[in-house]
Model the fold of this input.
Amino acid sequence: MSVFLRLSKSAEELNLAPQNTWAFMIIGNNASMAGTACDFFTQENAYDAAEKNIPLLFISFPCTKDPNWNNRPERREKCTVANVTFVNLEWFESWEDKPLKRRGNDYHRAKKLIGQKMIDQTCKLYPQIEDCIDFIDIGTPVTNNHYINSTKGEIHGLSHNATRFSPEISSRLRPETDISGLWMSGQDVLVCGFTGGLFGGVLTSAAILKMDLFTDIWKLRSAYKPSQKKRMTFSSYGQFHCDLRDKIFIFRL
Done:
């Protein structure tokens, strides 16, 4: 499920960084169980689920990553937020066959309740945005089915379960297909997300060109500014934060 927000202030005014945040709710005081508060997913409908804490939430600020954002005058005092979380398809599938924009009050109430819960939890982490929200757009699994031709509301390709990474399935998920000239690429030949999609493209390019592109990339990396080589630490990539008071476990990248 997705929530997109427009804010009435710029990212600079709100001190928003070009980063992604993964926020996990904590059970009790045990940070190792972050994100496993499954009473959200066990609810029978979206109305009841909205009464529970959402166990995991992805938060990003797309405008901060767009170098051309301020080139359009109407954007200069604006900012955007993207939120994503998991929900049960069953909560929304009864509206699957209803016409777009005419799914009825019950549907709009259901998506608004969970969407608002996502916004509330985001504002706990970024309180400076709460009074600046001037546009909200909420998407559900059936929204994804309509616009990107998903079948179960998914937006990240194949499910990342144990079966997906079994030797049998992994051996089938390769760039080559049985159709001459047709190749698979992106996250479904590797793993989900931006990095998985990026290196999935490298894997497919290597298969088409019959070249070891990964070794080439490594050699280019080693040749680039060799005098400035340094040991990379975790702090170079991301940041963990655990707030037991608010029971939120955060990973920022």
